[in-house]
Amino acid sequence: MAVTMDKKDEMIMRLVHYFITEENYSPIVVNGVKDEIWLQNQEGPYKIIRINANYIHNKEQYEFDLAKLRNVMRQVKRKTLSWSMNALNILLDVNEDVVLDEQKNIASVALRIGSLIKAKPVLDIFPDINHKMLLNEKGIDLMIDVTNDINQKTDRENKVYESIFRPKKIVVTNLLIAVNVLVFFIVFVLSGANLSALNLLRYGGINATLVQNGEIWRLITGGFLHGGILHLLFNMYSLYIIGTQIENFVGKWKFLAIYFASMISASLMSCVINDSVVSVGASGAIFGLLGAMVYFGYHYRLYLGSVLRNQIIPLILLNLLFGFMVSGVDNAAHLGGLIGGLLISMALGVQKREGKQDRINGIITFCIYIAFLVYLLFWR
After folding, report:
1. At residue 33, does pLDDT exceed 70?
2. What is the domain count for the chain?
3. Distance in angstroms (rounded) separating the CA atoms of residues 40 and 16
4. pLDDT value of position 346
5. Is residue 118 very low, low, confident or very high in pLDDT (cuts 50, 70, 90)?
6. DSSP result, 231-268
7. Are 36 and 60 in the same domain?
8. Which one is predicted more confidently, 168 or 371?
């Protein structure tokens, strides 16, 4: 028995195949809709593409349809932590009397079934769409080709996501914790259990005047010293929780680069703002890891959006607020580490989410930021 499909269904399958396999869009599950396909790509020229096969017979129905589209856009915007959201609204069955007027952030186009796409908003952004759509296949052949191609693309993407998110052996985080604990007990013994500011300074604490006098190494050694057992335990617990996640996501070498770049950034900021104090602790580097988590989570916000919104960002804000309210907390180092971790993550890039130009921009921005701190510390 021959399997047939109507022209509208064939058009939908061709469009879906093109946008998923050629433009890296992914389906969205939208509850309460019928005869509609919703696709999203947060890096695409349109964040959302909606293909609507329902009949739009008058202006009132079109305006109601736009209101429904805007509602879904708001939901996706909140879910993906997006600053802006635009949509391509493809309508396949519109009364000729309905005028598709221009809307803010929404480009609506009516496509004729069974003919080449001529709509200017589509061709301007996707100029190869007529060449890469499956125009020759029909019926069951079209369905098989579309299904196979989409499944193959999904399998490739799943392998990439699995390689990023699957649990891996944590090495660098555990090593850093061990080094911090070892340094603490060495200093504790050598100082006769006297972890005063003077003794911490003697063993490598951060001080702006000494750094300005050439003791640059303090920008790193200060990050491995702690002023007490509670200070050490709190920081090592935070490092274990956050560090294992970042190392698992970005890999050992990127993690190590983020940690030390954040530590140096935190130490420089501390010296610039708190030029007369002794600063110690791993919290500046840990805030850098939180900055890296924000950057990574934003690029994988379809998977980590709720964690980013409900856990990571509130944790950062609460810790910064705590630092401003409680004396003895070097919030300058926290801010410096946070900014440094965010910028070095831009420079290192996120797997499968950024191009070469994005990383170049990140490298330039990070270097300018560090150079500015160095200038403020040594030459202002």
Report:
1. no
2. 2
3. 11
4. 92
5. confident
6. HHHHHHHHHHHHHHHHHHHH-HHHHHHHHHHHHHHHHH
7. yes
8. 371
Quote the tokens at residue 68. 């429904």
Asked if residue 209 and residue 80 are part of one domain, the reply reads no
Active site residue 334: yes
171-194: b (≥16 Cβ within 10 Å) or e: ebbeebbeebeebbeebbeeeeee
Please determine, for residue 32, whether its predicted confidence score (pLDDT) is greater than 80: no
Final residue of a domain: which of 124, 148, 165? 165
Q: Which residue segment(s) compose the domain that 161 sits in?
A: 7-165
Is position 229 within any domain?
yes
Q: Which residues contact 31 (CB under 8 A, 6 or more apart)?
A: none
Pair (102, 124) in one structural domain: yes
Q: Is the dihedral of CA 167, 172, 178, 180 positive or negative?
A: negative
Picking from 94, 93, 123, 91, the residue whose alpha carbon sits closest to that of residue 106 is 91
| Residue entry with tokens 């079934």 | 113
Catalytic choice (262, 265, 283, 345)? 283
Q: Is residue 2 part of a domain?
A: no
> Of 165, 193, 208, which closes a domain?
165
Same domain, 149 and 192: no
For the chain, what is the mean pLDDT? 87
Higher per-residue confidence, 92 vs 217? 217
Check whether residue 308 and residue 208 sit in a common domain.
Answer: yes
Question: Which of these is catalytic: 17, 262, 334, 345?
Answer: 334
- Would you state the structure tokens that stand for residue 175, as one six-digit string? 């090593």
* Phi-psi domain of 108 (left: phi exceeds 0; alpha: psi -120 through 50; beta: other): beta
- 226 DSSP 8-state letter: -
**How much is the average pLDDT of 74-101?**
85
Question: What local confidence, expressed as pLDDT, does residue 161 receive?
Answer: 74
One domain, residues 151 and 193: no
Domain of residue 314, CATH code: 1.20.1540.10
User: Is pLDDT at 302 greater than 70 in this prediction?
Assistant: no
Asked if residue 1 is part of any domain, the answer here is no
Pick the range with the lowest mean pLDDT from 337-341, 344-348, 358-362. 358-362
